[in-house]
Design goal:
alpha+beta; 8 strands; globular
């Protein structure tokens, strides 16, 4: 194989692999639902495969995702939202029977054996209440819009400082 092609392929693989790393996984209680916030890097245009799962009593249960088949018991209780750098899973009706180790796993679509994940141990009586921060605030790029439009609004005499 041509060395230039090998180096190009290696750099592409490294870019995709480093561009989809899970940075944090946090858990909190929102009403009677468990909320899992999986924050991640997203430095590539490649599709991302993901999976949320629970390990309890040495058994693994897929809750939600596009990798494994979700367990029907849990899948019917989940609600999923996604942003550029965050995936959020809500598990309704959270009880002590749902305690265990929760995992958020990301996989570059073109690399089946490469994955990045984070775990969080969840006990109902140790969970903190979720703060009132919406998904929009967690992805703060939209906050720049008013700041960037300020000079334009001043030039149009909408208001003055």
């Amino acid at each position: 194989m041509n060395p230039a092609i090998s180096i190009t392929l290696l750099l592409t693989v490294l870019q995709v692999a480093s561009g989809q790393k899970v940075t944090t996984l946090t858990a909190c209680l929102e009403d009677q639902s468990l909320r899992l916030d999986c924050r991640h890097e997203n430095n590539t245009n490649m599709p991302m495969q993901y999976e949320f799962r629970l390990t309890r009593d040495s058994k693994k249960y897929v809750l939600f995702g596009n990798v494994g088949i979700p367990n029907p018991t849990y899948h019917s209780r989940t609600n999923f939202t996604s942003g550029n750098h965050i995936k959020v899973l809500h598990l309704s009706g959270f009880t002590t029977k749902d305690e265990g180790i929760y995992t958020c796993e990301l996989r570059p679509s073109n690399q089946p054996h490469t994955f990045f994940n984070k775990n969080v141990s969840v006990l109902r009586d140790k969970l903190v209440k979720c703060e009132g921060i919406s998904l929009l605030v967690q992805d703060t790029s939209w906050l720049l819009l008013p700041l960037l439009s300020l000079p334009f609004l001043q030039a149009m005499d909408y208001f003055s400082l």
